[in-house]
């Protein structure tokens, strides 16, 4: 999948790994002021392990800061309305996780209008024009739509990697069809209802036949005659909810025009950062974590 001459950038879905640490780490870690920092300790271990294993030369971590202010909320107010805002303790830990990211010299991406997915997508798109391939570190199925021929997605926790062919194996659609697929069958995680009565298998079958949501809606009269269970009902639902599906696609499609810096130089990890020691003291990291952070801060890249 990787060509010998092609540089690689790792683009990390930071919020996902903060949430995972929040849910998986015991409530026994506190900072110097007595605030819980279990998510910070878990996230720091994750980031250290990734840096130690991969020794990436170019990388960025994207965080969500737009749960209620994303451009998608303006399009569809119910977007992610099913999600509770992070409790204050976790919100405080997000700030500390961002501080750790920057203290390790890693580029941080955050915006109040665009989500982490959009920041990763826009960065990937920009890097591709500079000859880079990207490895998206996340388990989120939405990212499948970004994978080009040489790109990968990496579910770090399960240590599973896949390229464009793996998207089809998982969802039954090709990368360029993922946004259409999610618009049709919906995405409960983001409170996107999809077209009533159309589940994942039906959405994949329809896109396999028509190729795209636009083509499907243009040829909607053909749907009733497909060899598909409930084809007539499916056609009726599409006629009734076709415009809603187009709206949902505006939500499921990852933006490629988020404000990011041009080029790859800004993604080169910096070393010799001075704030790590004081941050480690504030977060009450143990000797093992401190030694890992020091080594990563001073190590020469191996490419």
UniProtKB/TrEMBL annotation:
Keywords in alphabetical order: DNA-binding, Hydrolase, Nuclease
Domain of life, per lineage: Bacteria
GO molecular function: 5'-3' exonuclease activity; 5'-flap endonuclease activity; DNA binding
Biological process annotations from GO: DNA replication, Okazaki fragment processing
Species annotation: Dyella psychrodurans
Protein name: Exodeoxyribonuclease IX
Alphabetical list of SMART domains matching this protein: 53EXOc, HhH2
Pfam families: 5_3_exonuc (PF01367), 5_3_exonuc_N (PF02739)
Cleavable signal peptide: none
Annotated PANTHER family: 5'-3' EXONUCLEASE FAMILY PROTEIN, FLAP ENDONUCLEASE XNI
């Amino acid at each position: 999948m990787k060509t010998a001459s092609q540089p690689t950038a790792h683009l990390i879905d930071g919020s996902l790994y903060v949430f995972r640490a929040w849910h998986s780490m015991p409530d026994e870690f506190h900072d110097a002021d007595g605030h819980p920092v279990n998510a910070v300790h878990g996230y720091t271990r994750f980031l250290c392990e990734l840096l130690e294993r991969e020794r990436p030369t170019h990388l960025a971590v994207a965080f969500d800061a737009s749960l209620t202010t994303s451009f998608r909320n303006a399009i569809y107010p119910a977007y992610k309305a099913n999600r509770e805002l992070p409790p204050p303790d976790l919100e405080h830990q997000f700030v500390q996780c961002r501080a750790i990211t920057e203290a390790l010299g890693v580029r941080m991406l955050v915006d109040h209008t665009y989500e982490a997915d959009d920041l990763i997508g826009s960065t990937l798109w920009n890097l591709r024009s500079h000859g880079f391939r990207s490895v998206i570190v996340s388990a989120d199925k939405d990212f499948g739509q970004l994978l080009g021929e040489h790109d990968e997605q990496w579910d770090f926790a399960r240590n599973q990697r896949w390229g464009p062919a793996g998207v089809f194996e998982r969802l039954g659609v090709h990368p360029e069809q993922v946004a259409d697929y999610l618009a049709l069958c919906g995405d409960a995680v983001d409170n996107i209802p999809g077209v009533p009565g159309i589940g994942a298998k039906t959405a994949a079958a329809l896109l396999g036949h028509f190729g795209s949501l636009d083509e499907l809606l243009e040829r909607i009269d053909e749907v009733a005659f497909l060899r598909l269970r409930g084809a007539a009902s499916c056609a009726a639902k599409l006629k009734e909810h076709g415009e809603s599906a187009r709206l949902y696609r505006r939500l499921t499609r990852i933006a490629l025009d988020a404000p990011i810096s041009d080029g790859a130089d800004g993604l080169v990890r910096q070393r010799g950062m001075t704030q790590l020691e004081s941050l480690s003291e504030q977060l009450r990291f143990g000797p093992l974590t401190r030694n890992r952070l020091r080594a990563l801060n001073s190590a020469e890249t191996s490419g």
